[in-house]
Amino acid sequence: MANDSGFIEHLRELLEPLDGVTIKRMFGGHGVFRHGLMFALVINDTFYFKVDDQNRPAFEARELQPWTYTNKAGKLITMPYYQAPEETLDDSDDMCEWAESAYGVALRAKKKAKPKKASATPKSEL
Which CATH class is domain 5-112? Predict the structure, then answer.
């Protein structure tokens, strides 16, 4: 992987106005989290925001591309992350606006996730 510490530090500065943002190495790139929820990622020096049906139209209207990769079987996989608009990489206000939208996706996804069920092991009677 190329030395991308300058790009990651630049992203940290742009996202600084948002409370609770952390950036961690993962996926051969970096995951971007807010309050523990991943809302963006960096792969091959490209920044992507998390999308769902609510915010995807804004990305598609600007012809921004989703993150894709080819799996071991040769199948193209499209992930729910779209390339960040170019201006977000130059302006903290723009970055934070789009980041808030992506964080909203992460919050909605968390709400949709079913809570883990407690163990159904019956208590033994003595």
Answer: alpha beta
